[in-house]
Amino acid sequence: MGQFDGKVAVVTGGALGIGGATCRRLAADGASVVIADIADEAAEANRQRIIEAGGTAIALHTDVGVTADVEGMIQRAVDEYGRLDILVQNAFGVGSEYPGMKGSAVDVEEPAWDRGMSVLMKALYLGAKYAVPEMEKTGDGGSIINIASVHSFLMIKENLIYEAGKSAVVGMTRQMALDFGPKKIRVNAICPGWIVTEAGQEMVDKNPEFYDYATTQYPIGRAGVPDDIAESIAFLCSDKAGFITGHPLVVDGGLSIQLQDSFGQAQTRYGQAHPELDLGQYF
User: Fold this and answer.
1) Would you say residue 208 lies in a domain?
2) Residues 162, 213, 218, 270: which is the catalytic one?
3) Is residue 65 a part of any domain in this protein?
4) 19 located within any domain
5) Residue 237 lies in domain
6) What does the buried/exposed string (b/e) look like for 99-126 if buried means 16 or more CB atoms within 10 Å of the residue's CB?
7) Angle at CA 73, nearest 5°, toward 68 and 77?
8) Nearest to residue 15, comparing CAs of 55, 60, 77, 52?
9) CATH classification at residue 232
């Protein structure tokens, strides 16, 4: 018996990375999963992995920046499985057709801002808008997990859209928790540090010295992997977390507990120990 037997979960960005691992984790514990993603082939491949492991899942093409797609993914979950219990709002992706994503308020281009906010913020509002009434119908309540970031609290230069959007996710999570608590729907956020996804692993394989350098800044001594976040999501969705709502859970290997001068000291120590490396190429 799995802790999510009889439950239905929708995971946006569910093909790869954090979303992919979350789909597999929830399915392994008995949930029927809707893998919502724009990456059709990867979503189908993840569905096959779940089916082969004995789980239940469907893949659904979903662009969370499109209102009809968000409404449709919730309706498809209900049509397919009869109810909705869990919504994991993880997707974030902007295509190359939106230049000017990086930069300060002076540099960011307006179409990029609009697209970024539609995916980072509007999609979460829409997901809750359509999911909450379905969760309420079950009589058991439900759980919504919004994926924020350590960037919700710690900024990097010239990254306005991502930093603003992820900061807003924490505020939205708290507001939703307040509004939907009386409906027995808990809303929490996960704030990951550096998670080495499939794409990230390719970069690490090509530049192992960067991984070694970067992990000196993590007290736990390593970067995260998607399963680290999937396990945290499963906990927050479970009855074990039944009295937790409105909480931004930081899962970052200790990255954000340090004073900023600790980063500089770590960089200096690593650079002195490896004078042959050109670490400036990574910044």
Assistant:
1) no
2) 162
3) yes
4) yes
5) 8-198+224-257
6) eebeeeeeebeeebbebbbbbbbbbbeb
7) 145
8) 60
9) 3.40.50.720
How many other β-carbons are positioned within 10 Å of the β-carbon of residue 137?
A: 13
Contact 5, 85 (CB under 8 A): no
| 265: in domain | no
Q: Is the pTM of this model over 0.85?
A: yes
The two counts, helices (H) then strands (E), for the chain are: 10, 7
Amino acid letter, 42: A
Instruction: Extract the tokens encoding 247.
Output: 């909480």
The question of whether 211 is a catalytic residue gets the answer: no
pLDDT, tens digit only, all 283 positions of the chain: 799 999 999 999 999 999 999 999 999 999 999 999 999 999 999 999 999 999 999 999 999 989 999 999 999 999 999 999 999 999 976 654 566 788 999 999 999 999 889 989 999 999 999 999 999 999 999 999 999 999 999 998 999 999 999 999 999 999 999 999 999 999 999 999 999 999 889 888 888 888 888 888 899 999 999 999 999 999 999 999 999 999 999 999 999 998 876 666 666 776 667 777 665 555 4
Of residues 153, 39, 50, the one with CA closest to residue 91: 39
Decide: 137 and 83 in contact? Cβ < 8 Å.
Answer: yes
The total domain count for the chain is 1
